[in-house]
């Protein structure tokens, strides 16, 4: 598939990259139908966001059509159209139970990177550096969405 890929400060390109795969039973894969560039993407472009790695797929504002579903997903079926929030949340930690999804304790597999760079951990965020989990973003043809039953509409 084609995706917008970060290669370094002021260097982003459309590259051919592998299609995403279901990695967890709560995942879905969506075919992107619309995506946007956010003002905060300029921080990535300018090199102000630490922990970016060459080859990272950008984009944290997107929507699309569900094309593949993990076997634990309850809310969605193939063909459903979804809007995906930029934060990734588990749905069952204390923060998620209080609907404070951007503070999710479980979605970011690299909270120590966030703590070292921001002073605190955050939830994971699509396409926004490894301190935010290193998840591929939605400026691509397809994207894997973990914890699909949480947050999507």
How does this model look, in words?
It is a single chain. The two termini are 25 Å apart. The strands form three sheets. The protein has a four-stranded antiparallel β-sheet, with no helix packed on it. The chain has a two-stranded antiparallel ribbon with strand order 1-2. The protein has a two-stranded antiparallel ribbon with strand order 6-7. The chain has helices at residues 41-45, 94-97, 111-118; strands at residues 2-8, 11-16, 28-35, 62-69, 81-84, 87-88, 124-125, 142-145. The protein contains three helices and eight strands, in the order βββαβββααββ. A hairpin with a 2-residue loop joins strand 1 and strand 2. It is globular, with a radius of gyration of 15 Å.
Keywords:
153 residues; alpha+beta; Quinone Oxidoreductase, Chain A, domain 1; 4-stranded antiparallel β-sheet; two-stranded antiparallel sheet; 11% helix; globular
Question: Short summary of the structure?
Answer:
The protein is of the alpha+beta class and 153 residues long.
């Amino acid at each position: 598939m084609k995706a917008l890929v970060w290669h370094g400060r002021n260097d982003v390109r459309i590259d051919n990259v592998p299609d995403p795969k279901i990695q967890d039973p709560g995942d879905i894969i969506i075919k992107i139908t619309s995506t946007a560039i956010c003002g905060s993407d300029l921080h990535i472009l300018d090199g102000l966001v630490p922990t970016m790695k060459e080859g990272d797929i950008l984009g944290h504002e997107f929507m699309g059509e569900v094309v593949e579903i993990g076997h634990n997903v309850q809310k969605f079926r193939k063909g459903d159209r979804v809007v995906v929030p930029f934060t990734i949340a588990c749905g069952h930690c204390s923060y998620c139970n209080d609907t404070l999804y951007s503070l999710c304790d479980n979605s970011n597999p690299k909270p120590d990177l966030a703590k070292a760079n921001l002073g605190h951990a955050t939830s994971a965020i699509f396409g926004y550096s490894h301190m935010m989990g290193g998840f591929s973003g939605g400026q691509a043809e397809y994207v894997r969405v973990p914890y699909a039953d949480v947050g999507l509409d």
